[in-house]
Design brief:
It is a single chain. The chain is α/β, with parallel strands linked by helices and 185 residues long. The protein has one domain: Rossmann fold, CATH 3.40.50.880. The protein is 37% helix and 20% strand. The chain is built from seven helices and nine strands, in the order βαβββββααβααββαα.
Length: 185
């Protein structure tokens, strides 16, 4: 079973994190929610508190198949500055393991030096990253081992994209139909 790490930091975008975690778990993928701080309860950008499964400290790149970063500028700024997150991103990239980010979170990939040439992000966030290679019209962009998505409205599409990648077309189609997610095509 594939294992996906979702690190969360104060100010994360709740709709993205919960949507991603929910859909991936529905697909029977193992999702580890890890707090970047030493507290398991992490408050999102809109005041919703999520209880992480564990702290990030005990996670290594050998334990996971993908690291998936939710957005929200508050959380993204922490992810971009946190030494453990940045080291994990670099280790994952060096091992050619999957890395994904949504909304503002591709900025954390940029600071780690793992963002590939082609990407998408929340409109205007590219100004903090770079405009070269930015795609404003795609919900999900995959370039080598890095997958990026635009924002809260595309979180379901990103989650389904990961389901298709890890579980195949049939599982993807069934889950997409059950979620009424035709807009993710």
């Amino acid at each position: 079973m594939k294992t996906i790490l979702v690190p969360i930091a104060t100010g994360f975008e709740e709709i993205e994190a919960v949507n991603l975690i929910d859909v991936l778990r529905r697909a029977e993928l193992k999702v580890i929610i890890a707090s970047v701080s030493d507290r398991l309860e992490v408050q999102g950008a809109n005041g919703i508190i999520i209880k992480a499964d564990q702290t990030l400290e005990a996670i290594s790149s050998d334990m996971i198949d993908m690291i998936l970063l939710p957005g929200g500028w508050g959380g993204t700024d922490i992810l971009a500055q946190d030494e453990k997150v940045q080291t994990l991103l670099k280790d994952m990239d060096r091992k050619n393991k999957d890395i994904a980010a949504i909304c503002a979170a591709p900025y954390a990939l940029h600071t780690a030096g793992v963002l590939k040439e082609n990407f998408t992000c929340y409109p205007s966030a590219e100004q903090k990253i770079r405009t070269n290679g930015y795609s404003a019209d795609k919900k999900v962009v995959e370039d080598q081992n890095v997958i990026t998505s635009r924002g809260p409205g595309t979180a379901l599409c990103l989650a389904l994209y990961i389901v298709k990648k890890y579980k195949g077309d049939e599982h993807y189609s069934q889950l997409k139909a059950g979620l009424l997610a035709d807009f993710c095509d």
